[in-house]
Amino acid sequence: MTQHRGSRALRIGAIAIPVAGALILAGCSGSSSGGTSSAANTNEFSLTYATSNNVESPFEVLVKEYEKANPDVKITLNPQPNDTYGDTLRTQLQAGNASDVLETEAGSGQTRSVIPLAQAGFLAPLDDAATALIPAGTESLFGIDGTTYGLPLTISYAGIVYNEVAAKAAGITEFAKDWTTLKSQCQSAAAAGKTLFVLAGSTVPNAGITASIIAATRVYAETPDWNQQRLDNKVTFADSQGWKDTLQTVKDMYDAGCFQAGAEGAGFDAITTGMSTGANVGFFGPLGSATELQKAAPDQKFVAQSFPPATSKDKAYGVASPTYSLAINKASKNSVAAAAFLDWIAQPAQAGIFADAAGSLPISGLSDLDLSTTIYSAVADELNNGDYTPLANTNWPNASVYDALATGVQGLLTGQSTVDSVLASMDTAWDQ
């Protein structure tokens, strides 16, 4: 272990929300999780995960708790940069030098996603304890033909990570509820020497999630089953007014000065620096990032906001879905130790550790939570009423579609792409 334990300044546990739903589901435990039968060592394994900054990762918190409970186990951590994590993971798996336990994502829309990795033969089957944690209706995001390959960890809310201290300094007392007000707030932030949003435009994860969060209001609020319609070849990206509006909104925000100068070439360090210093009011991403930022900048105050709809008459709509998951490398020589770690995570006593550290939500029982006094208070109605969609690419057929979206956003910022050309490239990637 290379980092010291960070203080948990902003915790799910501290905001008094129960993890009862997750505990009930976790109560069913089967035999030891799957893996190869040639496990060489039951007392050590390695774990790889994505990281965007030097703040203690929720995976490190999870490992420390496990090491505390199992002092005879040695765990080697292999963090990788978030912006290249998916490609790095696949390269390591193909080369045979990947870690024993792998951070993965639900569904099929990214190179790190559970389904394509399982289909490629890289992941070991998991047992009933992992299966029991999967929220009803999302089984296809973690397994194939009834076999589970990913252990879900939390429900992640993706939206605007919003710094209330920076907003107040910019003269903004309430986050925009419609597009017209949002543009006005971009001007207010600029007048105060700030920008309303900071964007890591050079990275696929941040460029892609920015467009996906906007699409919640422009596409999925009106057509929640849009992805299924695309799978059924009833719609296309190129012919979708909602997707046209999504990408046009990104371009309009850039033109209106809503992003920092040089956003198109910025990396994740721009977000960490801009948000922790209060130079920027918000950014697009998973709210778990707010927890990490709060640790690094306790004088700031980070909360969740959803991206505003086009008009105040339109429905506010968010993004919430199971995202983080863990899997076992099928080629692992330490699969017994790796499986024991996943089985430990699935036990009731551990159900809230990752959600606590990540600042995310328990894997089930979301509609029953009282979020009125939490960092989710501004989006509580959306979460409680089910006015949200899973992350857009969760069940897209391959990672190339998301890559086309992200690189398309980058092209919009640099002027090398148009809305129509980006959407056409997404359709091409979908059909390949």
From TrEMBL:
This protein's UniProt keywords: Cell membrane, Lipoprotein, Membrane, Palmitate, Signal
Show the Pfam families listed in the entry: SBP_bac_1
Q: Which SUPFAM superfamilies match?
A: Periplasmic binding protein-like II (SSF53850)
Organism expressing this protein natively = Microbacterium rhizomatis
Query: Would you tell me the protein name for this molecule?
Result: Extracellular solute-binding protein
Under InterPro entries, the record lists: Bact_solute-bd_prot1, SBP
Question: Keyword Glycoprotein on this protein?
Answer: no
Please verify whether the record's keywords include Signal.
Answer: yes
